Amino acid sequence: MNETQATPKNIVLVGFMGSGKTTVGRELHQRLGYPLVDMDQVIEERAGKSIPAIFEESGEAGFREMETSLLREITNHAGSERRIISTGGGIVGSEENRTLLKQLGYVVWLSAPIKVILERTGKNRNRPLLHTDDPAAKIQLLMDQRNPLYEQVAHLKLDTSGLDFSELATGILECARYFFTSRA
Ligand code: S3P
Question: Atom 15 in ligand 1: which residue has the minimum CA distance?
Fold first, then answer.
């Protein structure tokens, strides 16, 4: 698809675990009334198991297949309805996924410093990639790999550590409106 011709008017949130995608997604959903698609949640509902259980039984590779297959499905229906799409932190790892994300709409990269990510992710055990003796080192490693990939797909980058989530949502909406208007 030619991105400049017909970008669907979805808002897509990408970023590291604990960067605030779910919270910002809910805020945008409340403001706009567009359906919120939380990809991790859909994957868990369809599989009938938690993400840690999926990793345990099918490995990370199994989880990634489910993630890409859901992303293909969402992209195939992208023109019909405006949505807020909250993705999992590792979605940018595959080239196919990056191509699909760019076709989906306005892509916002939510970021935060490692210290903040550690605080936020330390609160629950739902992230199998951080079940390690040294989560800080793992976060650093994954961030080094992923930051250039988030950069590739994103139209906007926002640090979520300074502003509250309502202010962030306001900023995203203003930028997204400008983006879609300039392409209409
Ligand atoms: C992952 C992030 C998680 C979830 C899975 C893998 C990752 O989503 O998709 O545990 O590779 O960074 P959140 O970013 O919503 O925590």
Answer: 88
64 alpha carbon to ligand 1 midpoint, in Å? 10
Q: Which atom of ligand 1 is nearest to the CA of 126?
A: 10
Q: In terms of pTM, does the model score above 0.85?
A: yes
Q: In the block, which residue shows the tokens 């990370």?
A: 60
DSSP classification of residue 3? T
Which ligand 1 atom is the nearest neighbour of the CA of 21? 15
Contact 67, 97 (CB under 8 A): yes
CA dist 93 and 113 (Å) reads 20
How would you write the pLDDT of the chain (184 residues) with one tens digit per residue?
A: 444 456 788 999 999 999 999 999 999 999 999 999 999 999 999 999 999 999 999 999 999 999 999 999 999 887 668 999 999 999 999 999 999 999 999 999 999 999 999 999 987 788 999 999 999 999 999 999 999 999 999 999 999 998 899 999 999 999 999 999 987 7
